[in-house]
Amino acid sequence: MGYKKIIVLLMLFGAFMNVLWGEAKLYEVRSGIIEYAISGGGNIMGMQSETDGKRKVVFDEWGTLQIQKEESVSTTMGQTIKTNSMIKMDNGTVYMVDPDKKVIIKQSLEMLGQSGGQDMLKMGKEMFDKMGGKKIGSSRVLGYDCEIWEVMGAKIWIHKGVMLKIQADIMGIKHTEEAVSVKFDVPINRSEFELPDFPVKTAEEIYGKDLKEKMPSRMPTQEELKQMQEMMKQFGTMPTH
User: What is the pTM for the complete model shown?
Assistant: First the structure.
């Protein structure tokens, strides 16, 4: 899994959750074990793709301690790629397991802040507003009441801060993750958060000390995000309202 992709996912995840629930805790549920089914695929530029997989999320301490494990298989033009990833977040520190290099990448979420020292909560609110995130309705997933939020063409079903379902359509490729098993407020064994016995290194050690300098020093402007949305609309991936 590419490091830049991980950073983007963490920024979007952190921004959305901070907007909803503040920085004291991520969720309004103390602990949980959730299993998701992953599916998707589509046709882009004549190339047909299909993805199937599963993801498991275990969290405690209102979400400030959590681990996510994902296994998926993607097939494009007859070629198959298997993904096996593991990401742990422990009170502001992220551990990303790279099974190919057999190493664990350790990084503080502070790295994602702006060079001017802007805090993550403020950054998250600004990013969410600029992306046009808004609540569009409510529904249920596995019997749990959810708010439905929409941001940049993706719909997200949220129960007390916890994502139970997401649907996205990016450049003709559809992606869906939906909870198939949910357990809230249950005792969590500490062994659930154990990582493989790989050496732990910082991102700078692996990718170079100038990595932080290569990261964006500011958030995208409203105009830049608007241009991005207009480009995506031309591919038929963004809603027109």
Answer: 0.73
